Structure formats: C-alpha cells, structure tokens
C-alpha cells in the first residue's frame, strides 16, 4: 500500500537500482527527512524510486530505521561507547563497501541518526593518527577519482530531481482524484435532469 | 595493517560531519594534508577564543577552542639545559602534541611563523596574541620572534628572564595592551618610568617601586606589590 497515513501499519514500496521492490513501514520511512519532504503528506502512487542505491544497501538502511522506530527522538550525536549491542553488531557486520554505500544512502535519505553514527565511527578511526598515517588511512583520491565522484554527484542530483518530479506528479494526480467526485456529481445530476426531462416530454 | 577509509569519496556534508566529531588536535593534523582539506576544516568555523604563546627553552602554543585546549610544543629538542643552542625560527620545524605524545609534520615544511598562520586561519583567530617569556627564552632571537608573532595583546615577562633580554622584549613588543613585569630590568629609575608612563590597560609590576613611579602611572588597572 502506498497511501499517506500516520499509522505505522502503512507500508510503502521502495524500488532499488536493480528494479526490485520491497516493503518498508511508514514509521521507519519517516526517519528519512528526504522522504518526509517529498512524500509524507501526499503519499506515493506506486513504488518510491531510490534507484541510485542497490537493494542490499537500502534494506540495510531501512533495517536500521525499523530497529530505531521505537527509540526516543533523535537529539544529536551519541558517543560510540553509548551504542547498544544491536547497534554495534549492525555496524560491525558491514564490510567497508557496504559501510560507504550505507553512508551515501543515509546521507541522501537524510537519516540524521544513522548518518551521525556512521560519521562518528569514521572520526574514531582517524583519532590518534599523525599526518602521514592519516594520509594512508583516508587514501586521498586521484584526479580521475575526483572526476568520477563529480559525475556520480551529478547523477545523484539528477536522480533526486527525478524523485522530486515523481512526487510532484503524484501530488497532481491526487488533486485530480479529489476533483473527480464533483465532476461525477455534476454528470449524475445532469443525467438525472435529462432523464426527467425526457420522461416529462414523453408524458 | 592499518584499516583504510576513503573519506574524501563521501559526500561533502558527510565529510563535514566526520570532522565535526574530531577534537582540535586531529583537526589540525588533518588540515595539514592539503589546502582543500584545510578549507573544509576552516569552514567548520571553530573559533579560538584565546591564543597564548609561552617562550622558555621551547615555544609552547596554547589555543583555547570552546572547552577544548590545543597545546603544541616547538623546539623541545634539548635535554640538557646547560647546552641550549640558539634557534633559527625561520627554518622549518615539527610540532609536538604533548597531550597525545605525537610529533606532527606538515606535507609541506612549515616554520614557526607558518604554523602560527595556519593555526590562526584554521581556527579563525585574528586578534593579537598573548605572549609570555620565561627562563631560557634567550635561545630565541627577538627580531625573528617579533616577525613571526607580530603585535601582542598581553605581554608577560617573568623574573627568570635576564635583564638584557627583558629590555629587548620591551623594546620589540612595546605595543602590548597589558604588561606584566616580574622584575625591573633597568638600573636607571627613569628607564622603568618610561615604561610605566605608557598607556597600557593593565600593568602588573612585581618589583620595587617608588611613590614617583606610582604617580606617573595613568592606566585603568594596576597590580603593585613592593613599594619602597
């Protein structure tokens, strides 16, 4: 189901880069400020396309959101030492590629809590290093990599635009649906009047 | 093997969030890697409230940023105080983080003046500095210090500094706002009076003074201790 509602029972369909779709609860999805800005009030007609991220990454991100649904509202970064066992397992079981994908997706979806924990984790990795050690750890990108990064960011901007357009389109459709009953009412009344007129003239 | 992480392949606001989670020590270190990273760190707008330089047998730089203190030592190279060699502070030097016991080097060699400029620019500090002179500061050449440090707001010269060097300090750093002198370096009375008569905001003078000296002073705050 993809209708706007505040109930946590509501499920939304998410579409990944592979074209696969899967369900995410409304409560989990509402942790994403990007989603809130685009779909919360108007709903989504069909799957929500987050097609810049693969299914595994999106599932991982929403696994975190589903888990933290019942946690109190986010109130700024929490120290890694204060993370629960579940949180630590969640981060530890990711390999580096998945971790980077999760940060990118979480950053795009603007999930503050997850982005903040990921960034704190990276900062922790850099503490205690001198300049040379830091250069080794952060593996500075080459010119080609910088160019590729720029292309990816342009692609992401285009994807964000696509999502925004889809949201706008959905909003337009919703408006049309709201108008339908009035049109139907007018048509029904018109039909009734015609029938009445015809029966009257027959008499 | 050290784990690696391609930090600069993350989106810019994620990089900023990573940096916001780092203490000033590590921010300074990471800002030395490249000009681009320096600009990102500067864009965090972490403003130093106070920068203090203590000169003894080494130069200690203390930068107060919010509740954090960034302390750096330079020229901490001699174990034997009797064999203190004079230092040319125009040459490149490494900084030492005493709280972390780490030596930090820049990707391009920096002399003391470059370090100072880098730190002031990264931590958005434009005010004049506070400067303290202590025992064994004579190993540093005063003109080079003046060139590197510029004008100072507070000048403190302790009793451990020789008379000759104290006079040099007073000659070169005469534009300070607050002056604290633990010892009178002059033999002639009129010489200290020339210092006392200047328009400082606060003067702290811990040596013997006369009623004439006292009457000459025309400042807001005064700390005396030994009247004749």
From TrEMBL, chain A:
Keywords: Ubl conjugation pathway
GO biological process: ubiquitin-dependent protein catabolic process
Residue stretches making up the SKP1 component dimerisation domain: 113-159
Residues annotated as domain SKP1 component POZ: 14-69
InterPro entries, sorted: SKP1, SKP1-like, SKP1-like_dim_sf, SKP1/BTB/POZ_sf, Skp1_comp_dimer, Skp1_comp_POZ
Highest taxon of source: Eukaryota
Gene3D superfamilies xrefs: Potassium Channel Kv1.1, Chain A (3.30.710.10)
Xref: SUPFAM superfamilies: POZ domain, Skp1 dimerisation domain-like
Pfam families, per database record: Skp1 (PF01466), Skp1_POZ (PF03931)
PANTHER family: SKP1 (PTHR11165)
Family stated for the protein in its record: Belongs to the SKP1 family.
Protein's name in the database: Skp1-related protein
Organism from which the protein derives: Caenorhabditis remanei (Caenorhabditis vulgaris)
Lineage: Eukaryota, Metazoa, Ecdysozoa, Nematoda, Chromadorea
TrEMBL record, chain B:
Pfam families cross-referenced by the UniProt entry: F-box
UniProt cross-references to InterPro entries, sorted A to Z: F-box_dom, Zygotic_Embryogenesis-Asso
Residue ranges annotated for the F-box domain, each copy included: 4-43
Lineage top rank: taxon: Eukaryota
PANTHER family per UniProt: CYCLIN-RELATED F-BOX FAMILY, F-BOX ASSOCIATED DOMAIN-CONTAINING PROTEIN-RELATED
Protein name from the UniProt record: F-box domain-containing protein
Species annotation: Caenorhabditis remanei
